[in-house]
Amino acid sequence: VSATVSCTSAYQSAYGAMFGVPVAILGALWFVGALTLLGIDRWSASARDNVPGYLFAWATIGLSVILYLAYGAFVVLKTVCLMCVLTYIAVIGVFLAFFINIFSKLLTKA
């Protein structure tokens, strides 16, 4: 779109891949993992007590990665990738949803 708003600058930089794998693929795999855990929670009564903790841990990993990538894009590269920003918002939303879920359950048990 412009010199400042450019997904190309982000994905062609050192922040565009981790361990040789494009971050877009890693992000898609992260969302597949989150959906898989949600499916396990829905269809497995025996796993239902543990899945929220796994989802929260998974969301924390995702949040950590997007904070690193956002730092790289905004601070180091001084660019904004609109698709990246949408992903950041989605991961933060997932993290907050599981954070609220976990702690509301802890508060109701107390």
Largest sheet descriptor:
2 strands, antiparallel
Q: Structural class of the helices, strands and pairings?
A: mainly alpha
Level of helix content?
Answer: over 70%
Low-confidence stretches: none
Rounded to an integer in angstroms, the radius of gyration calculated over CA atoms is 16 Å
Give short descriptive properties of this protein.
110 residues, mainly alpha, two-stranded antiparallel sheet, 2 strands, 73% helix, 4% strand
Structure in words:
- Helices cover 73% and strands 4% of the residues.
- The protein is elongated.
- The protein has 4 helices and 2 strands, in the order αββααα.
- It has a two-stranded antiparallel ribbon.
- The model has no long low-confidence stretch (mean pLDDT 91).
- It has 110 residues and is mostly helical.
Layout of secondary structure:
Blueprint: H1 7-11, E1 17-18, E2 21-22, H2 23-43, H3 51-76, H4 82-109
Could you write a compact summary of the structure shown?
Helix content is 73%, strand content 4%. With 110 residues, it is mostly helical. Helix 3 (51-76) packs antiparallel against helix 4.
